[in-house]
Amino acid sequence: MTAPPLRTLIVGAGLMGTSLGLALRRAGTEAYLEDIDPNHVRLALSLGAGRTPPPADFGRSTSSYRDIVVVAVPPAVLGATIADALTRFPSAVVTDLGSVKVEPATAVTSRVPEHAGRYVGGHPMAGSEQSGPLAARADLFDGRAWAVTPHTSSRPEAIAMVGELAELCRAFAVRMSPAAHDEAVALVSHLPQVASSVVASLLAAADEEQLLLAGQGLRDVTRIAAGDPELWTQILTSNAEPVAKLLHESAERLHQLAVLLEKSDPAASPEGLRAALERGVAGVRRLPGKHGMRPEEFAVVTVQLRDQPGELARLFADVSAAGVNIEDVRIDHSPGTPAGLAQLAVHPDAESTLLRALAETGWDLHG
Question: What pLDDT, in 10s, does the model give residues 47-60?
Fold first, then answer.
């Protein structure tokens, strides 16, 4: 028997909510939008992220659809908004896109325990340092992990529907408990945000002459520090204990490195320093790449790019003409310099084909 079609109401039309609407529209699924800010709704609707308001039968027992409400609001109001959605739409499954999961699950089970079975937490591991509906993209969730975090009362059909939502957005569902999720994101998301902000804060008092030497490495490390401070204050406060634990551990390791560098014995410091750097290399190698593959499973072809209009488009066109798929790409270029480097990650079997094709079309290859 074919399941009834899915229908989605997105509460919150910022970056994440509008991106979800665009992704669902791409998938051919009906989506509706609401937000306390009418400008957000207007912009999201102009982008084609959905419609408003939802039909009168949305989330009711009379509906011939499987209705799901996705709450995409800031952490400070997440629990209350989820509880409100569960009450307003008594037959709908409710999930959210929040980056912390224990707090909203606790709010739901304490505020509306009679509706808690229809709530399943969700968190797509995607986003941007930008905010608002104009920064939204239909492909924001493509290939990304989407944490599905049922609590002890979540119904199986609700869990399955949230997993289906992730798949419609071309993400892959990863099921875990709310507590396990919060510990995981403290490490892979919240700690990097704090570390990036700390490094970037040192730039505020730096001499202009020093900043002239800034290269891609510094830009990579500090990029996410441009995120909204108010939003990140709410996120970090909501997940304070796991983040604080990791910050203490990181601070201790940084202190140990500082002591090593200060030692007067030149033979003592390099060995310990090298060991610390090697542990970093080992950590990077554990990170999964595209489709869950290890990054080192891809071959990297490095191409020099001149700083002129259309150069990147020409490179991509030549790669496409060679019949090679780019698995990942990284651009290393500082503004004002005459050239940069494009690092193209490709399947190892395609490396020789791509090298030959790019050499024939006149590209300067490095490495």
Answer: 999 999 999 999 99
